[in-house]
Automatic annotation (TrEMBL):
One of its GO terms (cellular component) is cytoplasm. Its main location: cytoplasm. This is Ribosomal RNA large subunit methyltransferase F. The lineage of its organism: Bacteria, Pseudomonadati, Pseudomonadota, Gammaproteobacteria, Pseudomonadales. InterPro entries: METTL16/RlmF, rRNA_lsu_MeTfrase_F, SAM-dependent_MTases_sf. It comes from Pseudomonas linyingensis. Its EC number is 2.1.1.181. It is an enzyme of class 2 (transferase). Specifically methylates the adenine in position 1618 of 23S rRNA. The keyword Kinase does not apply. Keywords: Cytoplasm, Methyltransferase, rRNA processing, S-adenosyl-L-methionine, Transferase. Belongs to the methyltransferase superfamily. METTL16/RlmF family. It catalyses: adenosine(1618) in 23S rRNA + S-adenosyl-L-methionine = N(6)-methyladenosine(1618) in 23S rRNA + S-adenosyl-L-homocysteine + H(+). It is found in: Cytoplasm.
Length: 352
């Protein structure tokens, strides 16, 4: 599944604007680079508000110290062009904020930006809360299906730690699945996070679920490029815009890595989501809300048309913001408001 490109990494390490203070008249100082304000843009329940506390992160994960640099704004950060730095940084964040003691991924696999991934989880919690009188459902009775968990297993980790939900992560890549299983087992989360391989690479839901399985949510971060060449070109454009395309330096094709199945598929994001919509009809009674991230706002019109044609009872588009990145996800259900209320009531009765 795709990562946010380099210039969309949430800028929590950048300084917020400060109110001006009266000063004596003096010659104007030379212009300094100004960072955009990011505080408050994340979901209110997102743990990653404000600047990162690097001394605290290093205290919990000493290996991070060798990757810390001073950014153009004079603040501590890391070099997001260094895949190893990004991986160690993520490991430190997961340990400090979520109590994840072991997290690692094979070389070349997707290393996700955690604040943005957490925002999706919190927004999904709000989606469920809207059907539950405004109360966010918590606990293992909430069952979530993660389409394409990847080697990083990030959504199940965050969702379980934040809300106690139970997850089934699915994946077509056997290597990614093995890496995710290692993370789950090393953190003692086998009862909370299950993993399953989708054996038919061209399918999403088809042949995946057992007849008696029910899920309150499905989530997905689909591959949004249509080819490997497009993925590479898109990353190079981002580096150039940031002034980082230095011919003397070998930069990674994608700073967050990623295998082909995580980054691109034939027809790109729009084709993948349309296939997901079509297959969701097959399991319409087994999933309360289907959702998927949509990286390109220009695709929304086609996606909404496909959802209308699918017979979905209700469709929602939820906007999110992480630093300079504007993102969104679509949610659809084949259950009426009354049926959703009955679903939640049955779940509550089972929990009691």
């Amino acid at each position: 599944m795709p990562a946010f490109p380099p210039d969309t990494v949430p800028s929590m390490h950048q300084p917020p604007k400060r109110p001006a203070r009266p000063r004596p008249k003096q010659p104007a100082p030379a212009a300094q680079p100004r960072a955009p304000v990011s505080k408050g843009e994340l979901h209110p329940r997102n743990r990653h508000q404000g600047r990162y506390d690097f001394p605290a992160l290093i205290a919990g994960s000493p290996e991070l110290a060798r990757f810390v640099v001073i950014n153009p704004y004079g603040k501590e950060s890391i070099d997001f062009a260094n895949p190893e730095a990004v991986k160690v940084f993520n490991r430190a964040l997961l340990k400090q904020f979520y109590g994840i003691e072991h997290w690692d991924i094979p070389p070349g696999y997707l290393c996700p930006p955690i604040p943005g991934r957490a925002d999706y989880i919190h927004a999904l919690a709000d989606l469920l809360a809207a059907d539950a009188g405004g109360e966010v459902p918590r606990g293992a009775q909430v069952q979530v299906l993660d389409i394409g968990s990847g080697a990083n297993c990030i959504y199940p980790l965050l969702g379980q730690r934040e809300y106690g939900w139970r997850f089934l992560g699915t994946e077509i890549d056997a290597t990614a699945l093995a890496a995710a299983r290692t993370i789950v087992q090393a953190n003692g989360l086998e009862r909370a996070i299950g993993l399953r391989q989708q054996m038919a690479a061209k399918h999403i839901f088809h042949g995946l679920l057992q007849a008696d399985e029910r899920f309150d949510l499905s989530l997905c971060n689909p591959p949004f490029h249509s080819s490997a060449e497009e993925a590479t070109q898109g990353s190079q454009r981002k580096w150039k815009n940031l002034g980082k395309l230095d011919p003397r330096r070998k930069l990674p094709l994608l700073n967050f890595g990623g295998q082909s199945s995580e980054l691109w598929c034939e027809g790109g994001e729009i084709a993948f989501i349309r296939r997901m919509i079509a297959e969701s009809r097959e399991v319409a009674q087994q999933v309360l809300w289907f959702t998927s991230l949509v990286s390109k706002g220009g695709n929304l019109q086609q996606i909404e048309r496909a959802l209308h044609n699918s017979g979905a009872v209700e469709v929602r588009t939820v906007s999110m913001s992480q630093g300079q990145k504007q993102s969104r996800f679509v949610a659809w259900t084949f259950h009426s408001a009354e049926q959703r209320a009955a679903w939640l009531q049955r779940r509550g009765a089972a929990q009691g």
